[in-house]
Design a protein that fits this description.
The complex is a heterodimer of chains A (190) and B (97).
Chain A lengths: L12 H30 L10 H22 L3 H31 L8 H34 L3 H30 L7
Chain B lengths: L1 E2 L4 E2 L3 H20 L4 H16 L11 H30 L4
Classes of the chains: A mainly alpha (190), B mainly alpha (97).
């Protein structure tokens, strides 16, 4: 019995996976948009926060090294990929620690998540971003093991590309947090 | 260096340019203080990173990455703009006479 040749589902797995991950990132951004909307609506009085310039530049650098690691992955450079994603991991950990200290400072200053609706919205926004960083760190650790063992294969390249995009996405969200929460915080609400 | 599937440039230079521009925009926003210009700088920086880091709009036809990105912008404008608009209106209606 003859069968019609079916389209090979595995042939284009790379671009389909990357596009699917891209659509996930966009919907994740929509979730952040609702959190920003809640914060902006509830931001009824000015709040003076310490501006985290160092923290912002550290996350930007983490996004940059993740991009470089993606480039190294395309060149099948195992050492460069692992080294640069390792650097991303270190920078991401420092960023997370600084965020933790920052939030702890707010809580001990009597501006915790349970103070008022504005602070609840603020902690939800920052906390959601922090959880994204935690998962990015875990994912980096988990993914670097097969890369060390097997090297850059078609499968690991696909996963590394998604991880690279995830780090870059996290930093794009932080650009808005830095601007709206920290820089515009002192600007009186409506 | 191209990502063959997407015709993306995955070389080092777009990343370096994006990194320097983003750092400059961050520092600019930091020193400008509380002003509405910060939103312009933030939007510009997000766009710089979307194009130079995430290759939005640089892929081969059909431009699904770009189209889905534009749809995201529409949703964000509706969600944030709509929320502010309706809350402002409610404040206005609640204004004491």
């Amino acid at each position: 019995m003859m069968h019609e040749p079916l389209p090979d589902a595995h042939q284009d797995a790379y671009s389909k996976t990357v596009f699917g991950f891209w659509v996930y990132l966009l919907t994740d951004f929509m979730m952040f948009a609702t959190l920003f909307a809640a914060y902006v609506v509830l931001h009824t009085k000015p709040i003076v926060l310490e501006k985290p310039l160092a923290q912002t530049l550290i996350l930007l650098t983490a996004s940059f090294t993740a991009g470089l690691a993606g480039t190294m992955a395309h060149r099948k450079n195992r050492l460069g990929t692992v080294g640069l994603f390792g650097l991303t991991f270190v920078l991401g950990t420092v960023f997370l620690w600084m965020m933790w200290v920052d939030l702890g400072r707010l809580v001990s200053a009597g501006q915790g998540w349970n103070t008022n609706a504005m602070m609840s919205a603020l902690f939800t926004l920052l906390g959601t971003h922090g959880v994204h960083v935690v998962f990015a760190l875990l994912w980096t650790l988990v993914l670097l093991v097969p890369v060390c063992v097997e090297g850059i294969t078609l499968v690991t390249l696909r996963r590394l590309t998604c991880l690279r995009m995830f780090w870059q996405f996290i930093n794009v969200v932080w650009v808005f947090i830095f601007s709206i929460v920290y820089l515009m915080g002192a600007y009186a609400g409506h | 260096m191209l990502d063959i599937e997407h015709k993306w440039n995955v070389g080092v230079w777009p990343l370096v340019v994006g990194y320097v521009l983003s750092a400059a925009l961050t520092l600019g926003a930091y020193f400008i203080g509380s002003s509405l210009w910060i939103f312009v700088l933030a939007g510009t920086q997000a766009l710089v990173q979307a194009v130079l880091f995430l290759h939005v709009g640089l892929e081969s036809k059909p431009h699904w990455y770009l189209i889905s990105f534009l749809f995201l912008l529409l949703v964000v404008v509706v969600v944030i703009g709509g929320s502010l608009w309706i809350m402002y209106n409610l404040n206005y209606q609640m204004m004491p006479m």
